[in-house]
Amino acid sequence: MGLSGRVKPGHIIVFGNEKGGSGKSTTAMHTIVALLKAGRTVASIDTDGRQRSLTRYIENRGLWRQRTGIALEMPTHFAVPLADGDTVADIEGREFRAFAEAISRVEHRFEFVVVDTPGSNSYLMRVSHAMADTLVTPMNDSFIDFDLLARMSPDGEVLGPSIYAEMVWNARQLRAQAGAGPIDWLVLRNRLGTQQMHNKRKVGGALAALSKRIGFRVAPGFSERVIFRELFPNGLTLLDLKDVGTETMSMSHIAARQELRDLIAELRLPGVTVTF
Q1: Which residues span the domain enclosing 219?
Q2: How far apart are CA 223 and CA 179, in angstroms?
Q3: Does residue 5 fall inside a structural domain?
Q4: Sign of the torsion angle spanned by Cα atoms 24, 184, 266, 71
Q5: Considering Cα of 21, then 131, then 172, then 163, what sign does the dihedral take?
Q6: Which of 13, 20, 38, 9 is nearest to 271 (CA)?
Q7: 275 lies in some domain
Q8: What's 111's domain CATH number?
Q9: Composition of the chain by helix, strand, coil, percent to 5
Q10: Is residue 276 part of a domain?
């Protein structure tokens, strides 16, 4: 459905993690472009007013499109600016009003709204999570990142949920109180390497056990590949390579494209089928 006459609220996909460097904005951007190329209407909101990684990615894409004349798909994008004020309440209030205005402008006009959040437990991060229909948490495949989900004993026993998992639990409670549907929470194991197989199995086993306790699904994300760092300055994604004249794709590109295909399928978004 187009931008006019849409009554049902759009499906909100929130990308969240309290650690930076997990590939959150890269994963969000590839999801946005995959949905656009599937013919869906997409808006994006960047609530990280300090780093603005998703905003810079989209700005780079717009500049590249202007410079080359190739009409690549663009989302309707909003960036929540950093606010200032005399008190924390003033700052949070101004940022919330900017976020609420962006949501009000897109939730009934677009089929999907993708929200990228800061890598810290901020007020806007908590509000964004409470609005998520689908929550995607990319994490590096290590026990350092796992610690955000759960506390572990020295012998590897899961002791209980950690700070980020508790925040998601609170978001679920807020949604329940508001009569909203459940959050479908997907944890992505980004930067899966071919080495350190023992560590990979240990992290995988711990995630599998924890997922049953606190209610998330686990899926492979993106491996560590140079291609992702090369695409960012031009605002491109793996799905744009043929459109921009990259006829020959390396085996690494093909493998990365398969990872993206698997990711979009694993998101289980309403009405979305993988066609690329």
Answers
A1: 11-267
A2: 38
A3: no
A4: negative
A5: positive
A6: 38
A7: no
A8: 3.40.50.300
A9: 45, 15, 40
A10: no
Show the tokens assigned to 106.
Answer: 């897109």
Sequence letter at residue 241: L
Question: What total of structural domains would you count in the chain?
Answer: 1
Give dist(CA 96, CA 77) in Å, integer: 17
**Model confidence pLDDT, tens digit, residues 193-234:** 555 566 667 777 788 888 888 899 999 888 877 788 889 999
pTM, 2 dp: 0.90
Q: Is 159 a domain residue?
A: yes
How far apart are alpha carbons 43 and 36 in whole angstroms?
A: 10
Phi, psi of 82 (to 5 degrees): -65, 135
Q: State residue 1's pLDDT score.
A: 38
Segment 237-240 long-range contacts (CB within 8 Å, at least 24 positions apart): 237/29, 237/30, 237/33, 237/34, 238/30, 239/30, 239/33, 239/34, 239/37, 239/276, 240/33, 240/72
